[in-house]
């Protein structure tokens, strides 16, 4: 905008200096350009102008003259004495001057100019009556249809008549308020212009002989005062006053006064220089009074008056140049008040917006209303001009659209309801709306070029609201086309441009290296997600017709995004690089969550389960391999020390389960859309973990074997021992061996490291195997809790409710990852077997699925029908091999059933660990659908029966891991037991040779262990004629066994201190189960007398003495002395393992091997013939569920009666 000072600036200042606000403004209208504001300046101005109004009303009640002069003028003898000078200078109020200076700053007017104009107004003793006179002249013009608004400005004469009546009424009230006289607005008056041009020959009142003359025109109590001339007797004023006259109007009085040069004097001291009376009738009678000089009259007989005054009268008549008439009679208004006010309004808005947050300050709002009243800018015109100015500033970005809507558009809407605009106003309004509409449409087209904020969202609401109001405003021309469709198209265009911008940013190469396609797509998805979330947050409540911006944005983005997204997810690189794939998945899932809030129908079209099924399958496969790698790495770095006092397992267990939990957490944090598919993935991971744990158990058992082998090798080389342990021992020796292993005892002794056969690391490995099932069970519970079948979040956070859908898919979701089938197989029986020689051959059954061993039963004596009553020992848990996953859209193909195979194995005597295949068979058909499966073993009616059950999910996996752990512990316990007892046979044999009886006594079989038949007891009771059996006393046995049990006590105490109580007892029980077998083997399976290299060597002296004595005594394994010793040793060992009730209980001690050993020792003294006869006629053993008679077969075979054993075994097959 041009910053030059406008030509009408002086008129503006004069208008503001003669206070008319709020008195005059309230008289004409209550309208304000903007919302009225309360401020001290406004209150001060109101008080000051109210005071001025009071003064005007007082002056109007006084009559300046009681008698008018005649046509020629003259003095009145009685009334002129009351003629007095004006009341003195009336300077504008300080608040009015401040308001004038405020607008002076807006227009670039110096403040000094305002001060000069204010002083001039004060010297003239003038006030608002001058403005009232101007408005009275304008009222006359309006009545003559010559106002600023003419009949041609309205198409309908009735509208002009309505406007004219409103304007006349407003002017009447304003003029009355300004002048305090009703004459100025009387409708039947004639408007004349009185001009007081000059005076001559006035008296000199000052010491210099001159005067400071000024004139006063008084009409109906209103005084019009001119500026005083300085030091002259012939002043020139050219003072013009418009006067409305009628026949009943009072006379017009012109008086001349001398302004005192003494600044201390009061204006009441001004001296009278003469007067002139003009009756209204004379003025009305004269069509025109040419300039003429009239002698000045006295106001009383005492007055001294001289000189003449020049006066002219001109009626206010219209001619062809209406603008000239307005300029001649309207002093305060510029030639074109409407254009001047529009410029003033625009400049004021521009300045105020730059200096404060509001559009117009209080001063600006008040001053503009005052100027509009004085310049006759109507309320409707003000609104239109304000709208035009606001539109111009809005186009410059001075304020947001919300301000334009509130301060402009809403007022225009009100105009459409209750106003008839003039043609200039209507033209301005339509041009403004056309410009604004073009601007708004452009803004909509580029609205989404930048990130959305709350402020911009409000702007969009305002812009669409303004366009909507334009469409319905009756004052405006209907736009071409539907504005709603236009806006919809522009918004789509803007959103498309926004997508292209985001796409370009996402695909722009980085400074270091170009991004991969997946990274570009991820960046694009995150940008769209942020953008759409912002639209949903800020624009959700904004509607334009049927257009909802978030819905539209979702549709536009979806339409353009899908080709890129689907194209990449179908590429081969997508499935291979699942690291990028899951980052892409997170971005797509986050975007889908936003779509669920905005447009759930589009959200359903995000095919997450289809796009990311391949990477998920690959990730599961890699995870299964990684489980094994992480397990192997954890085993390699493990030092096998306790993790903490409360966690007896070592770091490998912690490392494994930490890795497992990380993979499980990753899968859960994916928040896979389909709950069933997520459960499939989690179950498959748990299955992979269970397979890894099976490998871990094997690794622990292998390492336990390696530990024990190293320990055994160290025992062969005593110098390799690295430490000597202090092991507690009893405070005093007891009469019987009662070493309470695992109990803390007083005192301690230094022991030879060669006695230690179980390293501490072995105990920790046992604890590792034992701890895994509980940890795995907890992992299963957390991963797939019982409530996982229902839709819910494991973290307790429920997803937001899904909006109702018109159509729900009835087909199940495609399978992403197939969880492997699980099956439990129990070996029940093998039937119709034929006898195999040698008769002591044992038979086992091996179960295989798809070529993978599940397990092998323990060897049992051969028989026609083999039964396994203890199902827990022959139950196997298997995860079937993974079935192929078909493509998502391909028809489901049934996978072939896995092969179930049973192999019957023979174990020959002496080669128990080298089985030979005897029979083999495969299950036919869909064997998994049955609970019992019969398998043909290759002819002759041989067959096997297995029990089959399918337990799916975590229950099966927990049972499987517990089973694998139990098998691992059994194998480890067997290794530890073998480690503790591998030389027990040679120790017992050596002790048996060394021990000599002192007193011969009869040794009767133990009544506790002998459960034999009466005939059996009679058979084995020694007759009176039989030779005596030499049995050493128990005290001697205890002393001999003390050294033997010492190393057992030390190792079992280490075991009990390092392992849990249950695990310790389980290991002790496994060790005890070997002890009776070893004792029995000294009778049924004589072995070489030389000790193994790892056995501590007995002293040479004792060895030599034993050798010399053994040559003289019987070398038979069933010699009475040996049998007696072995019986005593077995009783002592049982007592030691019982540990006075602190060790194994009687149920655990009473094993099959113990019963067999007792039976063998009790019958070892019988001859071969007696044993053969008893075995063949059934008096030696009665085969029951608790006693299969194998001990008798072994004893008879050791005596050389193999034929009798064959007969006994053959009886089983009959």
UniProtKB/TrEMBL annotation:
Residues 1038-1175 form the MHD2 domain. Residues 174-294 form the C2 domain. Pfam families: C2, MUN. InterPro entries: C2_dom, C2_domain_sf, Glucose_resp_signaling, MUN_dom, Munc13_1, Munc13_dom-2. Residues 33-93, 787-811, 1084-1117 are annotated as: Disordered. Residues 582-700 form the MHD1 domain. Residues 33-43, 1086-1117 have a biased composition (Low complexity). It comes from the Eukaryota. This is C2 domain-containing protein.
